[in-house]
Structures are given as structure tokens and as C-alpha cells.
Amino acid sequence: MKNENNEMNNVYEEGALKIQKLTFAEVVFAVVGCGIGSGALGTAYSARLGGFPIITFWLVVSGILTLISMYYVAEATLRTKKMIQLPGLADKYVGSLGRILVFLAVVINSLSCLIAYFNGSGSIISQLINVPVWMGTLIFLIPSAIITYKGLKAVGIASKYMSILMVALILILTVASFMASSSDVSRLVNQNWKYAIPIFNIAAFSYIGQYLVPDLARGLAHDPKKLAPSLLIGQIIVAVLLIMIPMGTFIVAPANEIEQVATITWGKAIGQWAFFTANIFALMAMFTSFCPITQTLISNIVDFFKLKSDTDIKIRLPIMVVVLGIPFFLTVTGMVSFIDAVYFSGTFAAAIMAILPIFMVNNARKYGEIEPIWNCGKLASPIIQLMIIVLYGGTIIYAILGTLGILPAGW
To answer: What is the pLDDT of residues 82-129, one digit of tens each?
Structure first.
């Protein structure tokens, strides 16, 4: 097995994106860290009019379809000799339009995530230590940026340990929700399917992780057989945690008391200790998403503009200043809210990044340079691919009609 892995590793080329080896656990928890972020914290608020059964249904459906889409990207990556990012894969297997669309989706989604993280972290730290919101955002930004600057390996290690702690905290808080004085389990059965489609957009946003896959493939280039299982396990953990967060929130608070960052409501309803625990969890969730998303955005920019290297300080530092400076400015000036950032990113970016990998994997099977030791098999069947196109394409149409007031908005 070791010789086979070394042989496969020698097949791939670094290019501008440097290969930094990741372990199986680091890849799993990179997926967990990316999935448990702003989307997770916005699910309860976005689903408050529809109800817990609807958000649970969509979290399961979206989780499965996103995993399949991630597998498409994984197979396309493993069929490509040079280590490139999602826009590069789209360019190679779809064409220049695909490259531009994927790059825009990555940028829009990443910046929307960062806006949501800065909004949420600023509000939470402000309440925890009684400082201005902008200062709370800055307190969150500095250590997060330092870890991200150090690169993919540092992000993988940080995500692993903090994600493990996040899982423990969410389990504690969920148990406490059932024991709280304000607990009312009957709230979990309330539902209004009128709001089903816009709630799907938030669920889709929570899982967006296709753009992370090429980085993870780079990290496991020495042992590509482990890529698919690590994505599966990471996605299962994400799904369970994503369901537990709105479940606990709905149990302890009525719909009209749920705030945009749900853990603030969650903690207040359970008690003082839970207020701090829930919001520490929220900060960790944002941190573990912030790092891989920012790292991947940097790699995508380097790949898209064909820059020399993603580790060169003269390239990496200016990119970080721009990609962090824009969302920081939009946040502290109040130009974009937490839930707006989540919703519109979930609608458009998720649709692009779910649909384009279909064309990528189909063409990679025809024109790829390598026959990998793993592929997604029948998951790339025309029926499954059509289902993804219809469902994610429909959300874009709904969002446009909802914005025009023709169909009901989610909240």
C-alpha cells in the first residue's frame, strides 16, 4: 500500500499551489470546521417561520447532494495531473465561462461567509466582554488571520482540535436544552411548508464545501484513497451538528425570540453558564470556518490569476489584506447584515458550485490525464445529476421572484 501511495503521489505536480500533507483526521475536521460556521448559526433564525421539520428535511437532502457534488470535484481533481483549484478545474473541463462562474461563486460565497463571521463574532464578543462591536470583530480577526497566513497545514491542525471541542460543546448544550426551564419539545413539530424553498437556500449555504476539495486533495495526494471516506465522515458529522443546533434553539425559545445568531438566544434561554458556553462554541465555529475558507480563497485567487505561488509573502500578504479588508469594512459600517450575507450567498454560490461539478466530472472522465484509484461511480448517473440541476437551479429562480415580492421570502 505504501509503495502504491508513493507512486500515486509522484503522479501529481505542485505548480503554484504547494502540497502540504494532511492526515485523514485533519481532512475530516477541515470539512467539519468549514461546515459548522455562519450557516449553522443562521439556520434556526432562517427556519423560524417554516419550523424544525422543514430545516431538518433540507439539511439531510442538501447534505447528501452536496457530498455527491464534492465527490464530483474530488474525482475531477484526482484525474488532473497538476494541482489546481476549482476555477482551474472548471477552465480545464468546462471552459473559460465555467472558470469565471466558479471563481465568482467562490469569491461571493467566501466574502459572504467572512461578512457573516465578522458580524456574528463582533456581536458575540461585544456581549461577552462589553466592548464595541467593531472591536469585537477585530479581536476575532487578528488570531484567525495569523493562523490562515501560516497556510494549509496550520489550518488543518487548528481545525482538527477546535472541531473536536466544538462537538463536545454542542452535545452538552443540546442535552441542557431538554433540561432547561423554558424547554418545550412541542415546538419541534410546528411547520409551514410555504417557506420550504427559501429555507433550503440556508441549508445549502451551510454545506458549501466544493471549493475546499482541491485543497484537501492536495493534502491527501500521498494517499488519495482516503479522500472520499474523509469527505463522507466529515459531512455526516456536519449534518448531525447542523440539525442539533436549530433543534436546541427551537426547544428553548419561541420563534419570535430567535435572533439571527441563534446561539445568543440559545445561551440566554438556558442560563448564564450556557450563554458563555454557547457563544464560545459560536466563536469557535466561525474560527474553524474562517480559516479554511480564507485559505481556499487565497489559493483560488492565486490559481485564477496564475500568480507565482500561494506561499510567497509578496503575493499572500496583499491578497489577505484585500480579502479580509473588504468584509471587515462592510461589517463595521453595517452595510450588510448577518442573515442577508448567508441567504444570498447560499442561493447563488451554492447553485453554481453544485451544478458546474457535474460538467467537470463528466468531461474529466473523457479528457482527464490520470485514471485514479477512486471514482464516484454510479453517483454520477444522469438521474442524480438532473436532480441536482433542477433543485439548485430552482432556488435561484425562487430567490429572484422572492426579491421581487412575487413569492414569499424566507423571513
So the answer is: 888 888 899 999 999 999 988 988 888 788 788 888 888 998 899 889
CATH of the domain at 185: 1.20.1740.10
Helix/strand/coil (H, E, C) string of 251-309? HHCCHHHCCCCHHHHHHHHHCHHHHHHHHHHHHHHHHHHHHHHHHHHHHHHHHHCCCCC
The answer to whether position 408 is within a domain reads: no
Q: How many domains would you assign to the chain? A: 1
Residue 410 placed within a domain? no
Q: How far apart are CA 85 and CA 17, in angstroms?
A: 8
Domain limits for position 344: 2-403
**Residue 341 within a domain:** yes
Question: What does pTM read for this prediction?
Answer: 0.84
**Look-up of cell digits 485567487:** 301
pLDDT in tens, 367-410: 999 998 889 999 999 999 999 999 888 877 877 777 677 766 55
Query: Is 411 within a domain?
Result: no
Q: How far is CA 392 from CA 43, 188, 203, 205, 361, in A?
A: 18, 26, 11, 11, 18
